[in-house]
Amino acid sequence: MKWIPQVIPIFPLPDVVFFPETFLPLHIFEPRYRQMVQDCLEDRPFIGMALLREGWEPNYYGAPPVYPLGCVGEIIHSEKLSDGRYNIVLRGLKKYEILEELFHRSYRQALVGFRDLPEEEASLPESVREELESLMRRYSRLIDQEIAVDNLLAMGLESTALLNTLSSVLPLPPGEKYFLLESENPSQHCGRLLDLLRFNIIALQGGRGPSGPPLVH
């Protein structure tokens, strides 16, 4: 794992929850975040994605509150457009927790602590993979949105990478994805993912929509 500085730029968005071992394409158009990308490309190519808390709209161009847990990614591709905008791709590296927010630049930075990935882990039991596959197929049919279940489960990923990938691609509300990001280990992550899929399937079948009570606080 690459060395990552403890002070990183923070890119807050209202609807994106980023996971380690996944990839995130971004189009950067605001002047402050163009500067952020430029600074990263000139120095250290790391950006921490953060989820904005509810009620962010009135203060979006200031520094509205964010949830403390996020994922830091490395810029692995960048394209600067003629008008100064950027297209970039981040590769998720580690989960972080904000210890202190810093406002020395036009964009927000933070002093963070990192949560390391487990060094060794076993694959998910076949019975769990089968249940995930079944629930994902049912959820996909109910929301009428195709999810490449076969491709994802056939990639041979270890449990953490697989769970992060599934959590990233599943069309779940941001609050539910943040609930998954908060998981402390693969076992808890798997249990939460299964519970969310079951809950949303039941809700959809009952005609109440996919979103349940808020899961973040």
Automatic annotation (TrEMBL):
Recorded superkingdom: Bacteria
Gene3D superfamilies: LON domain-like
Residue ranges annotated for the Lon N-terminal domain, each copy included: 8-201
Pfam families: LON_substr_bdg
Name of the protein described by the UniProt record: LON peptidase substrate-binding domain-containing protein
Biological source species: Tectimicrobiota bacterium
